[in-house]
Amino acid sequence: MTTDGRPGMRRGTEIRKARRGEAGLLAQLRRPPGGRDARIMLLAQLLDRAGTGVWAASSVLYFTFVVGLDTGQLGLLVGAAGVAGIAGSPLAGHLADRFPVRSLLIGCHLLRLVALCALLLVNRFDLLLPVVAVTYLGDRAAKTLEMLFATRVAGERRSTYQALSRSSANAGYALGAGLAAIGLAVGTRGAYHVLILANALSFLVAAVLVWRTREPRGRGLVAARTGGVPPETAAGTPGSDAAAGAPGTDAAAGAAGAPGRSPWRDRGYLRFALLDIPMNLDDSILGVGLPLWLVHHTAAPHAMVPAFLVINTVLVVVLQLRVSAMVQGPRQAAGAVAVYGLTMFAGCALLATATGGGAAAASAALLASAVLVTAAELMRSVSSWELAVSLAPKEARASYLGVAGTAQSVQKSAGPLLLTGAVMTAGPAGWLALGAAVAGLSLVQRRASLRRLDALAEADRPYVPGLRP
């Protein structure tokens, strides 16, 4: 090496170029964090979401034209299912502290398989309520267990895995929606039954794929950065104590059944979960707010509604991995929450302006809003995942992640009601008020998260051997 360090600089440049060349989506999918088990799980999620996309695109029409439910019954059915889904996340987290995650996830897929097949035999509204509720319960529980499985397997690279998971899921939803379009074009009872069976088949295949994985180490625990422990050690690289489950590691403590705290008595974490509910409103805005605002309050053509889904799907698949690379660690995740709020405010402000012009101006404002809300979603998917893990105590992360998962479930139930009952009723001022509220709450969430991270770091510092105080 020369005295000016140029050979070292050249080697560093070559390494960075090599990493950039390997950082593409397809390359990462071939070699995801977690190796073989992660690849299998990502494939299982792709197929699961493809089936879910089939059902999401056809369920309302099935209940309306095949089963014969009226609008009131359909609303009650969806509402009851949403309430049942809220219980799925904490129930999954509670059970994951006591039973293997892999077995629980297989059970969720099989539960949804049985419930969906029962729809082929049930036409009475009073019987449909529990069947659909069980389906939603299993769906939310499965998502929490997938998050827990991935966080344990991917370790320090969980944000990269989350990006790959989001890209796979959105590709699956798009595939499922395309398959549903074929069945809906036929429109017969038999075609609807084929769509239901296709969704059921996706659950069966997903269960088989999960069965081929290995149970992640650390019952009740999740790999995470601990003080100054190197990332590769905390992630459980081959030969490390974490990978081998040696005494003194989180995995060993979890296997020994170390007692954990209850998340329901942890006011700091409950505050995070509560504030995370409005940090998920992008989902309802994209799925409910944008289409209804376009149809009832703007001059934009109705045929533009599918463009919102296309924009969202393409941007998530293409950009999620890059966004996750920008947010490394819990402190940057806390900063991303503030970016989420500001981006949501900009998107809501554009929606407020969409009523003031002709079709072209309204279309441009709505499309730009869809891009901004999707950008907010990209930030939220990384920040929420990282903070849910990092803000939880090590000895009880499974049950804590179950509580964190309720934020999405509550938002899915309450978000559409908020938009239709208050925001859109108030007109453009309603969108401005919503955007300002989300932006303000995002700053509160950022500050509270940073304070809790400081407190957890201070509590952990004396217990990490070999580190300087």
Question: What's the SSE blueprint?
Answer:
Blueprint lengths: L5 H17 L2 H6 L4 H33 L3 H26 L4 H19 L5 H30 L3 H29 L2 H23 L19 H4 L6 H4 L5 H6 L11 H10 L5 H16 L7 H22 L3 H24 L5 H32 L6 H8 L1 H18 L4 H33 L9
Helix pairs in contact: 3-6, 3-7, 3-8, 4-6, 4-17, 4-18, 5-6, 5-8, 6-7, 7-8, 7-14, 7-16, 12-19, 13-14, 13-16, 13-18, 14-16, 15-16, 15-19
Count of distinct strands: 0
Low-confidence stretches: 1-22, 219-259
User: What is the tally of helical segments?
Assistant: 19
- SSE topology string: HHHHHHHHHHHHHHHHHHH
Share of residues in strands: under 5%
- Overall SS class: mainly alpha
What percentage of residues falls in helices of 4 or more residues? Answer: over 70%
Give the biggest beta sheet: none
| Broad shape | globular
Give the rounded overall mean pLDDT: 79
Give the N-to-C terminal Cα separation.
36 Å
Radius of gyration: 23 Å
Describe this structure in words.
There is one protein chain. With 469 residues, this protein is mainly alpha-helical. 77% of the residues lie in helices and 0% in strands. The chain has helices spanning 6-22, 25-30, 35-67, 71-96, 101-119, 125-154, 158-186, 189-211, 231-234, 241-244, 250-255, 267-276, 282-297, 305-326, 330-353, 359-390, 397-404, 406-423, 428-460. The longest helix has 33 residues, at 35-67. The protein is globular and about 60 Å long.
Q: What are the salient characteristics of this protein?
A:
469 residues, globular, 19 helices
Q: In a few lines, what is going on in this structure?
A:
The chain is mostly helical and 469 residues long. It is 77% helix and 0% strand.
